[in-house]
Amino acid sequence: MSHQPFEIWIFSDDSLDEAQQHILEEHLESCQTCTTLSNAVTMATSVLSTSESPSPQPGFTQRWHNKLALHRQYQKSRRTWLLTLAGFILANIILLSVVFFDLTTINWPYELGQIVVKISLIATHSRQYWRAISNLANAFPVIIPTFFVLVAALIAAGIFLTITWIRSIKKLIKTY
Amino acid sequence: MTGAEAQWIEQALQGDDNAFGFLVESYQKPVYSLCNRMLGNANDAEDAAQESFIRAYQHLKKYNQDRSFTTWLLSIASHYCIDQIRKRRLPVVPMDELPVEIISDNRSPQPENHLRQREKDALIQKMLNGLKPTDRAAIVLRYWYEFSEVEISETLKISVSAVKSRLFRARRSLADAWITNSSKSAIKERKPNESPAF
After folding, report:
1. How many domains does chain B have?
2. Does B101 contact chain A (CB < 8 Å)?
3. Cα gap A165→B67, rounded to integer Å
4. Cα A104 vs. chain centroid, distance in angstroms?
5. Which residues of B touch A34 (CB under 8 A)?
6. Domain for residue B187, yes or no?
7. What residue in B sits closest to A64 (Cα-Cα)?
8. Contact check, Cβ <8 Å, A11/B101
9. How many angstroms separate the CA atoms of B149 and A142, rounded?
């Protein structure tokens, strides 16, 4: 037996006209499957619409105020964290550009030129230090390889501990 | 929306937390109730309702005062709950293990009523858990808030035809769940009369 369009009518929210209603009723009298479906949907939706709405525990608004305060604190910490990170990245970019590029070759306005000259002086010193560190680094494996390995291990451990510390701080902030 | 609520919104827009607190006080029940029906337990519902109010406060500037505040608020809450269900992939909790929050009824403190209410809530939650998140939201808005299809489409930001098809599919699923549950109950009821020999 075909259950269409009766199934569509049973589950549709649109109201049926008189003729459709009559046809559906006639079909329901002879079809157990559609009767079961019709009764089930009526009962299920009736249970939904007549059930009581759950209420929150007393003090919801106060808890919301507390959560709002924590949320703001978290956002502030996050903003500080992001600003610090951005500052760190910017400082690195400036430092790298100062170390690797000769800024004095660019035609700067006078005031800016004075600053560039000072930065270039720092750059010159930085390059010297960089060279010295490079030479030292090159010399270490030849002179004291064990010492070099030890220093590398300490640096790696330091990086690992720093990352772990940063992650734990971030986790702590996230969980308030 | 009442005149006082419109005033609270204006004050909240100026950054008055207490004014928004009054709105939280007024709308806590519908928002919490929606979250509870969507997520299926009191703790998640509390978190979701709190978060929904924080989001509403943060985006209050986007609220168009010509529209219903309830619809706007429930829209935020339902989208948040849908996201939570998708993110957490909340498991379908077995009927007997469902943590159901019962509202104490002072007029009828009988334990039978309490138990009946508990069973009814568990059944409702079981039926709702079988629905897809957006279908569940559509059903909750249709039967608890008596929203029209247009209001549901505004709340869930989907077309009216999508609402119709989602409600159709959800009702079909609810009917199937009801039939399955009824047949299981019938088997349970028969068991005590069965012969212990079998």
Report:
1. 1
2. yes
3. 48
4. 42
5. none
6. no
7. B50
8. no
9. 80
